[in-house]
TrEMBL record:
<comment type="similarity">
    <text>Belongs to the XK family.</text>
</comment>
<feature type="transmembrane region" description="Helical">
    <location>
        <begin position="220"/>
        <end position="240"/>
    </location>
</feature>
<dbReference type="GO" id="GO:0005886">
    <property type="term" value="C:plasma membrane"/>
</dbReference>
<dbReference type="InterPro" id="IPR050895">
    <property type="entry name" value="XK-related_scramblase"/>
</dbReference>
<feature type="transmembrane region" description="Helical">
    <location>
        <begin position="62"/>
        <end position="84"/>
    </location>
</feature>
<dbReference type="GO" id="GO:0043652">
    <property type="term" value="P:engulfment of apoptotic cell"/>
</dbReference>
<keyword id="KW-0472">Membrane</keyword>
<keyword id="KW-1133">Transmembrane helix</keyword>
<feature type="transmembrane region" description="Helical">
    <location>
        <begin position="272"/>
        <end position="293"/>
    </location>
</feature>
<dbReference type="GO" id="GO:1902742">
    <property type="term" value="P:apoptotic process involved in development"/>
</dbReference>
<keyword id="KW-1003">Cell membrane</keyword>
<keyword id="KW-0812">Transmembrane</keyword>
<feature type="transmembrane region" description="Helical">
    <location>
        <begin position="330"/>
        <end position="349"/>
    </location>
</feature>
<dbReference type="InterPro" id="IPR018629">
    <property type="entry name" value="XK-rel"/>
</dbReference>
<feature type="transmembrane region" description="Helical">
    <location>
        <begin position="247"/>
        <end position="266"/>
    </location>
</feature>
<dbReference type="GO" id="GO:0070782">
    <property type="term" value="P:phosphatidylserine exposure on apoptotic cell surface"/>
</dbReference>
<feature type="transmembrane region" description="Helical">
    <location>
        <begin position="30"/>
        <end position="50"/>
    </location>
</feature>
């Protein structure tokens, strides 16, 4: 779901869409969707196991913080998702014929499962030259991808990011706590959060018929520059939090409120029907902006990227000079610079052509 101007765009393509307007769902798309579905299940198991592990080791505070970082985002994303499902009752009618509570529960457990199912059904219909089935499953695929992509974005940064920062803080304070299992959780986190952003950006392009889909090379480059930027920001925040936890929390909350309020007042997206829900969505985008910039509405983003990346680079440099050892500072700043270079390469060489301007 993305604001495209003066009104909130309906999620998904027009029911009158023809074959010529459809972007082909490739084997690569299906493969990555399947990987996302598997990684989602793994991350759920890992998150709940960590709660149990902390409790078993009598680290009750860490267990409580981890549990809170699961339950609070779950409630917030459930509210947002139920709002999306309920408001989707208007217009051309729902394409997803499931109950609201079923949508919420199944979205948490099998977030990418329905998208994968629709993609496979689309492929099967195409092989059988079933044009009607091809269009029907493509509409369901795009609609589900947009619905879930919007929630996936919030869920990753509200739930997974705080957990991994907490775990990094624990590891930085007590290096002996770094086990193979926790190292594995870090790898899963960084890969899933980068892919979540790639999928969100791609789904927003799919519903805009005046824009081309992102090619495979573009997806790969985009994945790696998002990976570099998010790893750098997460390491920077986690290290400072390991020294000054309350001060870091306060600064992060200020960053979230300022960025969310700027989005609400300046971009003024229509992401929800009520003012409260609209502001809540903007504040959750403020959480995303702790780590990476992603556009809220379809508008030129060149200078927004320049301002945001410059601001975060200054933050990283300041934190590295004041608080972080040289060898970790090199990794943090090196990853951020590499991410910026890959982003420039993406926009110069891999960005799909659009009808208006490059940015």
């Amino acid at each position: 779901m993305k604001d495209t101007g003066n009104h909130r765009e309906e999620i998904g393509p027009s029911p009158n869409m023809g074959i010529a307007e459809m972007v082909e769902i490739t084997s690569c798309n299906i493969f990555f969707t399947g990987c996302a579905a598997i990684m989602r299940l793994i991350s759920i198991v890992v998150n709940w196991y960590l709660v149990f592990e902390y409790w078993k080791s009598e680290s009750y505070a860490y267990s409580a913080w981890t549990l809170a970082s699961i339950l609070i985002p779950m409630v917030i994303t459930s509210i947002i998702y139920s709002h999306i499902v309920s408001t989707d009752q208007t217009g051309h009618g729902r394409i997803l014929y499931r109950g609201t509570m079923s949508d919420i529960v199944l979205s948490y457990l099998f977030r990418d499962g329905y998208t994968l199912n629709y993609a496979l059904n689309y492929t099967q219909a195409k092989k059988q030259d079933n044009k009607e089935g091809e269009i029907r499953y493509y509409q369901k695929y795009v609609k589900e991808e947009c619905n879930v992509g919007f929630i996936r974005l919030f869920d990753s940064f509200l739930e997974t990011a705080p957990q991994k920062i907490l775990q990094l803080v624990i590891v930085l304070r007590f290096i002996k706590t770094l086990t193979y299992f926790r190292a594995f959780t870090f790898v899963i986190y960084f890969l899933s959060i980068a892919w979540c952003l790639v999928a969100y950006n791609r789904s927003n392009r799919l519903v805009q018929l005046d824009k081309y889909d992102i090619g495979t090379n573009g997806l790969i480059v985009q994945f790696f520059f998002l990976l570099c930027l998010t790893v750098s920001r997460t390491l920077c925040i986690a290290y400072v939090a390991s020294i000054y936890p309350l001060a870091t929390l306060a600064m992060c909350l200020c960053h979230i409120l300022v960025c969310g309020s700027i989005v609400f007042l300046v971009d003024a997206p229509k992401l929800a029907n009520s003012v409260f829900m609209n502001y809540l969505c903007c504040i959750t985008f403020g959480v995303v902006y702790l780590f990476i910039f992603t556009p809220v509405k379809d508008a030129p983003t060149k200078y927004k990227y320049i301002y945001y990346l410059s601001f975060c680079l200054v933050q990283n440099i300041t934190a590295c000079i004041l608080f972080i050892p040289l060898y970790i500072s090199i990794a943090i700043l090196g990853l951020y610079v590499i991410g910026i270079i890959l982003m420039i390469f993406y926009y110069l060489m891999c960005h799909p052509g659009i009808t208006s301007t490059l940015y």
